[in-house]
Design brief:
Largest interface: A-B, 40 and 56 residues
Structural class of chain B: mainly alpha
Distance between the termini of chain A: 56 Å
Number of strands of chain B: 0
Structural class of chain A: mainly alpha
Shape of chain B: elongated
CATH class of chain B: Mainly Alpha
Order of helices and strands of chain A: HHHH
Strand content of chain B: under 5%
CATH class of chain A: Mainly Alpha
CATH topology of chain B: Butyryl-CoA Dehydrogenase, subunit A, domain 3
Oligomer: heterodimer
Helix content of chain A: over 70%
Number of domains of chain A: 1
Distance between the termini of chain B: 35 Å
CATH architecture of chain A: Orthogonal Bundle
Number of strands of chain A: 0
Number of domains of chain B: 1
Number of helices of chain A: 4
CATH architecture of chain B: Up-down Bundle
Order of helices and strands of chain B: HHHHHHHHHH
Number of helices of chain B: 10
Largest sheet of chain B: none
Radius of gyration of chain A: 19 Å
C-alpha cells in the first residue's frame, strides 16, 4: 500500500469501517510510514477529543421526570 | 471486532428497519418504554448540540419521545432502537427548526466522495499532541459552528459511535454521503481547532493548515 491509498482509507480505518484485509493493510503501512502514522494519530486524537468534549452533558432531572410520567 | 460499531447495533438484521410494520397495538409496553428511556442522555446531548439551546433541546427530546410512543407499533423489536429514536429526533429537528429535511432539498451536492481533491499535505500536519492543549469549550464551539448537515454526522459517528450504515439510516442518505460529509466536517473542525491552537500559541505559526 502506498501513501495515497493509505490516506484514502484512513478515515475508514479510524472509524473501523474497513474490512479485515483493508484494516491489516493500513495497519501495516502505518507501521512503516511515519508521516501517515502522524496523520493517523491526529485524526484519532481529533475523534477522541470531539467525543470526550461533547458526550458529557446529561439530561436535566426535570426532563427525565416528565418523560418518566409520559412513558408511564 | 469494532467496539463502536457494536455499540451502534451492527450485527443486527439488515437493514435497520425504520419502516412501519403491523403489530398488535396494546397497552403501555413497559419493555419498550424502559429501553427507550435508556437513550435519554444520548438523545439530549445530541439535541443540545443540534439546537444549541437547552430549552429547545428539552422540547425536541420530549417531542421525540411523544412521537416514539405514538409510533411504537412501527418499531420492529430487536432492531436498532437507538437509530430509530435518532431518526425520529433528526426528522423533527429538520422539520421544526430548519423548515424541512435537507435530503429532499438536495442542496449540499456532496454525494460523491472526492478525497483526492482534498488530501491534506502530510508534511504540513501538526503533531497530535497539540490537541492536548485545546479547551473543551473550544471543541464544543467548533462543533456547534459546523453547518447542521456536517454537525449531525459528527455527532452521530464521532460522539455517539454510530456505524456509517446506521448514520446513513438516521439521515436518510447513502453511506457515501455520510462519508463525504464526515470528511468535510472533520476538515472544518481541524481547521477551527488548529486555528484556535495557533492563536493560543499551542502550535507555531505556519503549521496546522491543511494543504488545499
Amino acid at each position: 500500500m502506498n501513501c495515497g491509498k493509505c490516506l484514502e482509507k484512513l478515515e475508514g480505518f479510524v472509524d473501523r469501517e474497513l474490512n479485515e484485509g483493508e484494516m491489516a493493510e493500513v495497519r501495516q503501512h502505518l507501521s512503516d510510514c511515519a508521516p501517515c502514522e502522524g496523520l493517523f494519530d491526529l485524526q484519532v486524537g481529533m475523534k477522541r477529543l470531539v467525543k470526550r468534549c461533547c458526550d458529557q452533558s446529561t439530561a436535566p432531572a426535570h426532563l427525565r421526570e416528565r418523560l418518566s410520567q409520559i412513558l408511564g | 471486532m469494532r467496539e463502536e460499531a457494536k455499540e451502534a447495533g451492527l450485527g443486527l438484521p439488515e437493514p435497520v428497519s425504520l419502516q412501519p410494520e403491523p403489530q398488535s397495538a396494546g397497552a403501555a409496553d413497559t419493555s419498550f418504554n424502559q429501553e427507550a428511556i435508556g437513550y435519554l442522555d444520548t438523545l439530549y446531548r445530541t439535541a443540545l448540540r443540534l439546537t444549541r439551546d437547552p430549552a429547545k433541546a428539552e422540547d425536541l427530546v420530549q417531542d421525540t419521545y411523544v412521537r416514539a410512543l405514538r409510533y411504537q407499533h412501527s418499531y420492529r423489536r430487536g432492531t436498532n432502537m437507538k437509530a430509530w429514536l435518532f431518526a425520529i429526533m433528526r426528522n423533527l429537528f429538520w422539520d421544526r427548526f430548519r423548515g424541512g429535511r435537507p435530503e429532499a432539498l438536495s442542496l449540499d451536492g456532496d454525494s460523491e466522495m472526492s478525497l483526492y481533491d482534498t488530501l491534506p499535505d502530510v508534511g504540513a500536519q501538526p503533531e497530535a499532541d497539540v490537541l492536548d492543549g485545546i479547551a473543551a469549550q473550544e471543541v464544543i464551539d467548533a462543533v456547534e459552528q459546523l453547518p447542521e448537515l456536517h454537525r449531525e454526522v459528527v455527532l452521530l459517528v464521532d460522539v455517539e459511535g454510530f456505524a456509517y450504515k446506521d448514520a446513513a439510516e438516521v439521515m436518510g442518505v447513502p453511506i457515501g454521503t455520510v462519508m463525504s460529509r464526515l470528511h468535510r466536517a472533520r476538515r472544518q473542525l481541524q481547521r477551527s481547532l488548529l486555528g484556535y491552537a495557533r492563536e493560543a500559541g499551542i502550535v507555531s505559526e505556519g503549521k496546522g493548515e491543511s494543504g488545499e
